[in-house]
């Protein structure tokens, strides 16, 4: 068994909606803010890099392997996964053939309802 500790969040606390909202406002004002654009781009790439890191830890392939994910949400006591990095990483692992078992002890409802 291997344990891979990953963090794929915006600096661990900044909601994804803030940079996206800032980007939208800047575009509407015809005054693009490259920092916000770069932040969104880097975050999207980081989530995919985290998915690849899991595959590397599984000797290059997750196909047919059971992967346990503890912690799904980007904030406690919620069931809103819209901004959670796990909403990108878990489906990537499933698409690559992994059997994902996910649970979040501090979210409302506990997670994805067992295996996904």
Shape estimate: flat
- Rg on CA atoms, Å: 16 Å
Q: Specify the helix fraction band.
A: 25-40%
Strand content: 5-15%
- Looking at this structure, what is the CATH superfamily? NAD(P)-binding Rossmann-like Domain
Q: How many helices in DSSP terms?
A: 3
Catalogue the unreliable spans: none
Characterize the largest beta sheet: strand count, sense, and whether it forms a barrel: 3 strands, mixed
Q: Give the termini distance in whole angstroms.
A: 20 Å
CATH structural class: Alpha Beta
CATH architecture: 3-Layer(aba) Sandwich
How many strands appear in the DSSP assignment?
A: 3
Question: What order do the strands of the largest sheet run in, or round the barrel if closed?
Answer: 1-2-3
CATH fold field value: Rossmann fold
Q: In terms of structural class, how would the helical and strand content be classed?
A: alpha+beta
User: Overall mean pLDDT score?
Assistant: 78
Number of domains: 1
Structure description:
Strands 1-2-3 form a three-stranded mixed β-sheet, covered by helices on one side. Helix 1 runs antiparallel to helix 2 (34-57) and helix 2 (34-57) packs across helix 3 (86-95). The radius of gyration is 16 Å and the shape is flat. The protein contains three helices and three strands, in the order H-H-E-H-E-E. It is of the alpha+beta class and 116 residues long. It starts with 16 loop residues before the first helix and ends with a strand. It has one domain (17-115): Rossmann fold (3-Layer(aba) Sandwich), CATH 3.40.50.
């Amino acid at each position: 068994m291997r344990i891979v500790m990953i963090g794929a969040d915006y600096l661990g606390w900044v909601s994804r909606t803030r940079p996206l909202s800032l980007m939208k406002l800047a575009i509407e004002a015809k005054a693009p803010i490259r920092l916000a654009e770069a932040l969104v781009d880097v975050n999207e790439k980081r989530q995919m890099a985290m998915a690849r890191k899991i595959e590397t830890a599984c000797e290059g392939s997750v196909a047919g392997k059971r992967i346990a994910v503890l912690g799904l949400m980007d904030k406690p006591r919620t069931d809103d996964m819209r901004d959670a990095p796990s909403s990108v990483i878990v489906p990537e692992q499933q698409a690559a053939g992994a059997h994902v078992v996910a649970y979040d002890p501090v979210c409302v409802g506990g997670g994805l309802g067992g295996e996904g």
